[in-house]
């Protein structure tokens, strides 16, 4: 197992270096001075120019420049934002919690609703129920996320007026950031209006979370159904039925835990797609996360924000993809056997 973890760590480092190399090469093609693209300082003084050229080794060869670029980026020096003139690393740290909060809520919705429907679709003998569930998942998988987000905003936000369609919370509430997660910070607040603020934050996250949850929800339903159909025909399930165990006991104690293993694996494989959908959702609902921040930087040609945002999002996706793979192999007996056999 130790060798396997070391290989995964090497994979993370190698992939990260390739990513940084791509960003380094891309920086040279920005239609601005390279020093400006690297630092975000529009009119640097002579001292700032000399310092930046020394930090990024601009007077040296390309390989030394790449090493210097890697060192600066990994040390947290992402430059200054061209538009706000603030450190990009600080802005990234400020918007990350909002994206994590939205992703966590959407992921929980997808799993908590998708797993029961997948189990129902696999166990139900009613053809209408099976076909209805699969039709819903196929429809949800086919709907463009931008159309869904705009439609939900129009129906529930504009016409019915039930839910807010932008932001994380009403500006009337002054909530001191503690964790960066608005749902938690409202409960931790000392304000007498904290419960009202929590409800308001909860209402704000409903529409973007539902919009973002549709794609993983459909995947969870389909993978759970396929896994349950396979597992329910396994010999140990037949043996449990022959011993007279209750169907609920067989499903929840023996079948479902094994069916969730491929669900976990497929959730890891779709992290990249999930992140790209999240960016679209954040823009539609003006959600102040990494996606809307990065898209705003692209529109404003904020080159340091573009580099910092792409680097941050990509590293997070790579890290969690490898982490999910490690967790999948840790809880899957067959994978553990293959790992130990390889070692």
Give the end-to-end Cα distance, rounded to a whole number of Å.
Answer: 8 Å
> Taking all residues together, what is the mean pLDDT?
85
* Number of separate helices: 15
Return the CATH topology of the largest domain.
MetI-like fold
Count of domain modules = 2
Structural class by SSE content: mainly alpha
What's the helix-strand series? HHHHHHHHHHHHHHH
Task: Describe the protein in words.
This protein has 343 residues and is mainly α. The chain has 2 domains: 2-74, no CATH class; 88-342, MetI-like (MetI-like fold), CATH 1.10.3720. Helix content is 76%, strand content 0%. It has 15 helices and no strands. The protein has helices at 2-27, 34-39, 46-55, 62-74, 88-123, 127-142, 145-159, 182-188, 194-231, 235-242, 247-269, 271-284, 290-299, 303-331, 333-342. Helix 7 (145-159) packs antiparallel against helix 9. It is globular, with a radius of gyration of 24 Å. Residues 96-328 form the ABC transmembrane type-1 domain. It is found in: Cell membrane. Keywords: Cell membrane, Membrane, Transmembrane, Transmembrane helix, Transport. It holds the Pfam family BPD_transp_1.
């Amino acid at each position: 197992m130790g060798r396997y973890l070391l290989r995964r760590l090497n994979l993370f480092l190698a992939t990260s270096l390739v990513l940084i190399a791509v960003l380094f090469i891309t920086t040279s093609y920005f239609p601005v001075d390279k020093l400006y693209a690297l630092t975000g300082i529009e009119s640097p003084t002579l001292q700032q120019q000399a310092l930046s050229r020394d930090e990024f080794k601009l007077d040296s060869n390309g390989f030394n420049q790449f090493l210097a670029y890697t060192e600066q980026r990994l040390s947290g020096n992402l430059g200054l934002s061209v538009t706000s003139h603030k450190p990009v690393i600080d802005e990234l740290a400020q918007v990350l919690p909002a994206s994590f909060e939205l992703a966590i809520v959407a992921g929980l919705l997808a799993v908590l609703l998708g797993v029961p429907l997948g189990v129902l679709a696999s166990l139900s003998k009613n053809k209408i129920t099976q076909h209805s569930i699969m039709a819903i998942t196929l429809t949800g998988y086919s709907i463009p996320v931008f159309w869904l987000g705009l439609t939900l905003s129009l129906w529930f936000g504009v016409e019915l007026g039930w839910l807010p369609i932008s932001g994380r919370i009403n500006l009337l509430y002054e909530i001191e950031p503690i964790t960066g997660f608005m749902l938690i910070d409202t409960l931790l607040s000392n304000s007498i209006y904290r419960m009202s603020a929590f409800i308001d934050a909860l209402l704000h996250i409903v529409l973007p979370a539902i919009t973002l949850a549709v794609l993983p929800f459909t995947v969870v339903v389909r993978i759970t159904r396929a896994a349950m159909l396979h597992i329910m025909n396994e010999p140990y399930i037949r043996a449990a039925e022959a011993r007279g165990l209750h169907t609920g006991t067989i499903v929840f104690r023996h079948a479902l835990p094994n069916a969730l293993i491929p669900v976990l694996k497929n959730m890891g494989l779709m992290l990249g797609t999930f992140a790209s959908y999240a960016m679209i959702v954040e823009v539609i609902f003006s959600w102040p996360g990494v996606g809307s921040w990065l898209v705003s930087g692209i529109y404003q040609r904020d080159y340091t924000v573009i580099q910092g945002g792409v680097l941050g999002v990509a590293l997070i996706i790579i890290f969690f993809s490898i982490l999910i793979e490690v967790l999948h192999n840790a809880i899957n007996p067959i994978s553990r056997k293959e790992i130990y056999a390889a070692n």
